Protein 1
Amino acid sequence: MSRKRHSTDQIIGKLRQADVGLGQGKSVEEACRALKITVQTGYRWRQKCGGMQPAMARHLKALRKENSRLKKVVVDRVLNVEILREGTSGKLVGLNGKPIVSGSADNTVKIWDSSSLATSK
């Protein structure tokens, strides 16, 4: 038997059909067998989507997707800050080997004059 992925709308529809079957006196096993799903899947779906309307489930899915995207943005920002901290902890030197900026992120940064920069002639 091949695996099939059901959409959230399909899951909610099948859960409603199972509720109708249970209301008619069927057991959980019989209701799940009529829907061609396992009992374990029925319980998992009930825990995940039980009592939801289709629009509410779509909204929840969109919120989870946005939350995932925002977490990735936060991770990128934190990495950028860490890279900048590491980059400013040492000395930056010009093409001629003389320091341009020295200092660290924790103390005052001193900027050297432009004569330390290499000039192209």
Protein 2
Amino acid sequence: MFKNAFLIENIIKKFDAAVPIIPLVGSLAKAKFCNVLGHPVTFIVAPPVDIDGIREPVSGSLLYGNNIISGAIIPTSTAIGFHFYPIWEATSVDEWLYNGGPYEKNCSTLLLGVACYMGREWELSFRLGMRPWISVAYSAPVAAATAVFLIYPIGQGSFSDVSMHGSLVTSSFIRETTENESANEGYRFGQEEETYNIVAAHGYFGRLIFQYASFNNSRSLHFFLAAWPVVGIWFTALGISTMAFNLNGFNFNQSVVDSQGRVINTWADIVNRANLGMEVMHERNAHNFPLDLAAIEAPSTNG
């Protein structure tokens, strides 16, 4: 087994040295392989996971009754929290699956994979003598993935509070060819001209919004199309990373009081109580009451 692993490692290193511009080799190979293989396998056949740690497993795989819309990779159990939980730390594979170990494994390999891929994009640009704008743009989804799958569970103290990682991915294709030729003919690698008509695009956006809101310069348009989503995703990742630690910028809990400290009820208080009510009803077996509705002292059970 170890001999075979050693041979595979040598093959990867030699292949990486011989073909340096292929991004999915070397340091990324194992993480990406685990991630690409682990996601569909988990999504299809994973057993139910005790996400709330209260012995009420939640099924998310296709094999257990979900479809491609309702299916998801169920996050690691609250009982595990943010602890490192590889398969060899569990007493059995069944326990590891029951506690949602595959989700944490997928998160770790995903983050390692996208980080290494960003480095490989920089390397590819460097070797081709290009400016590294591709890796700069790719840093936005890297930051978003890190915020959602690492920073947020750190702030909440558990992987169970991370969003469900569904495997449904949608994509769209803008056709630049006729019905009589392949869609792949719409772009030739290294072509100098754009795959769209800047005049038609300028006229369309000018009518869609107003005349001067459109770009008649392709460089300005390209910069806007690149910078707008990248900067937006950067700030979104920053917001997620901030709220992960419950750093509430606005807190309307009993925000208006008189000189004696008595609460003057406002609509903000009503909205706040409604939020608390929804919080109580959500997963009511796991969270009977939020902290600010819980009793100060537990009632005596000894009579």
Protein 3
Amino acid sequence: MGRGRHARTRGARVKPVIVATSDLVDGFRLAGIPVYEFDDAPDKSDSQLAAIIQAVLARDDVGIVLVDERYMAAFEKAFEGRELPMIASFPAEEVQRDEAYIDELTRRYLGQKIYVEGT
């Protein structure tokens, strides 16, 4: 069986990568997670986003790409039909969410509701 550039074997170690704006990437870097930093200035965004997508597609060690939700549509389109890497979004920092949305996220990802007292 031939192995293409994106061929993966069962049990192969794959890494997560993060695509986020510069104000969010430092924490991920400290955790040792590879990041692609995105400058969301309007004059740079389209070409920079395309370059990041191509860079991620060129890697064969990425299992999941965590993307700022503002850019999720572009990643979903580019990675459509691919088994790996999986694409998941995280909420954009400036987007305000209602309590029901936060409850749904915590239930989905943590398996339980989180209660915060004093808010």
